[in-house]
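Hi support team,

I'm filing this because I wasn't sure whether my run with zinc ion finished correctly. The job status page said complete, but I'd like someone to confirm that the output block is well-formed before I use it downstream. Pasting the exact inputs I used:
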Amino acid sequence: MVLLLFTRVGSKISVGAYCAISIAKLTNTYTEALFDKTAEWIISCQTYEGGFGGCPGMEAHGGYAFCALASLALLNKTSLCDMDALLRWCVNRQMALEGGFQGRTNKLVDGCYSFWQGAAFPIISLILSQESKEMIETVFFNQSALQEYIMICCQAVEGGLVDKPGKYRDIYHTCYTLSGLSILNNIHLRKLLTCLVQKRIKLCTRGKGEFSCN
Ligand SMILES: [Zn+2]
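And here is everything the job wrote out:
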């Protein structure tokens, strides 16, 4: 039902689905009937590259890939996803020279994908850790390189952050570069959140900023 609505208004489906699922979960109005076949539709957006497009046949894109993956996680349907292909696509979006992420194959690096690509990795780690526990500790991208790109290349002299050097600062890129910076600098917090999600809350504080989850 929700899918039909977003299709009719012409929205990019993976974004619309993510918004709808998030709102339904947050407002406690989620039902399985409301999102019947939504996961299957999202999976039809996974491309031959391994990422997700906004709708079937569309090019894989970092923003849509995050929305699709997060949606599948919220729906508890990540088993439908070709996770190896998605992970391969995600890791290849980090640029060897710049250190930041591109949003699509053969595009230039862009600071906002520090979040859109970067935020997919903790979710992938969580999913893979269900098969292999040590995966939760595995970071699949170069944190230092991404941090250097954000700190050195994305900070505007007047304040705020940019897509890449030479671009104007704006609120969107300031928000998402900082969000990416937060992800790469909060491994301990990620562990804590993961434990909470898995409902295996056994937390002991060993020292400043350190958590132990069993
Ligand atoms: Zn951007």
